[in-house]
Amino acid sequence: MHSAYVFDAYGTLFDVHAAVRRHADAVGPDAAQLSDVWRTKQLEFTWTRTMMGRYVDFWDLTKQALDYAFEKFPNANKSSKNQLLDAYWELDCFAEVPAVLRALKEADVRTGILSNGSSGMLEAAVKSAGITDLVDNVISVDRINIFKAMPQVYQMVVDDFRLYPDAVSFQSSNRWDVAAAANFGFRAVWCNRGNQPDEYKDMSPELVLADLNGLIGADGKPV
Predict the structure, then answer these.
(1) What domains can be seen in the chain, in order of their start residue?
(2) For the chain, how many helices (H) and strands (E)?
(3) pLDDT at 101
């Protein structure tokens, strides 16, 4: 058992496709593809901005990515844009999340979130999901104006929790994020919700799970 269990937010705790799914009828037949492109560009924009040293708030990049997605699919209903953006502040959390976080708290370990999301976005998502009391610390990259996967981002966790990296279990559904966490020295856990192939075999996770339920053993204790 580790002293702290820290989670990526988007795709790991919160379903990034929930916003489009909620308004799929308004978006039109291209809704699922639009959602995929929206997410892909959202991440791409964080990487390119970080490499250029030109930080832009994650919410602004989220809006820019959605604009691109609508241009990519011109038949999608652009009048649904504001609905999608509003919904992104209240994304659904995955079904197992509250119970897993509660089990971790009951085991007397500390919990946290480390995310590219802005502080305001994360606060809204945590509140909407009803998990405020289950998360000890929510860490946003907007504190240092650098996105993942830079080591400075993961350093915030050890600074805040006052732990060595190997005392931290870090969970993410993003394989590149898991690779960066492993490289930093965390116990890296890949929540491979989509059963995707491994992209970074030289920076392997210590644990691969189909969902976050796998963090809790049969005895009800964290693994």
Answers:
(1) 4-15+91-215 (3.40.50.1000), 18-88 (1.10.150.240)
(2) 9, 6
(3) 98
